[in-house]
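quick one, 293 residues, struct below
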Amino acid sequence: MKRNNFIFLVFVCIMLVFISCSQKSEIVSKSAISVYTSLYPLQHFTKWIMPEAQIQVLIPSQIDPHNFEPSLKDIQKLFNANMVVYLGNTDIDRWIDKIKDELTLKGIKVVRLQDYIAFKKYSLGSEIDPHIWLDPILVLEIIKVIKDKAQELYPDKKDMYEKNFSLYSEKLKELDRDYKKALSNCSLKEVIGSHEFLNYLSARYGFNFHFIVHEPEEEPPLKKIQKLKNLIKQSSIGYIICEPEGEKIAKTLSEETGVKILKFNTFHQISTIDYFQAMRDNLEVLKTALNCK
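---
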């Protein structure tokens, strides 16, 4: 998603003036640790490490994170936090880059994950792919960064954070082993998805990912549809995997080719199940799509 940087900078300047002049602020308990994350999976992972903290998400669950625009109230929340965790220069939360220096000057611990983790670019253009949370090994890197920064901010809690990190790092390693084992003996290597969300997972576990559209709100080009039809026929693909937002797009290709649709949990919205259950459900989806034994 492209934004006019000049307009946004002006907007941020106005908001910063308002915040500095405002006599109103959110009432937070002096003893409470306040953490804001840009999106739900980062809240989920931060809670693993810092269960005692009040951790809130900036992007509401009913809004597509790729299309989120911060309000004045959203910006003000960050200036009342102890820690802010976000991805970096992605179309989800790059707006935080514009104010991270001001946040740091206020004594807020700003955790920009892109400074510590190697992100990939989307297949076309220079835009950064944000979907790192769908790769268990990259999630391990995420929680290590959060643990390290939390220990810097609260050294008296170092042992607790280290213990929590050890617990979840072992769970993530086990999940990684399960994926490697389950996807090691499959008759197919091609997976078709509704939009471009499996670049990290496919690279990690050795299958080829093809997508109908780059983002869910786009209309698929006729040339792309024909290319996917040919791939389905040539590779005997029987399924399309999609997230809820991409079901309409997947249904179009499904009706034209006869392939079935499998639901995939991209875990970017607030969920009633935890990450490990969601990813094991996703593993079953991939095993079906790839015809694994």
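The mean pLDDT is 90.
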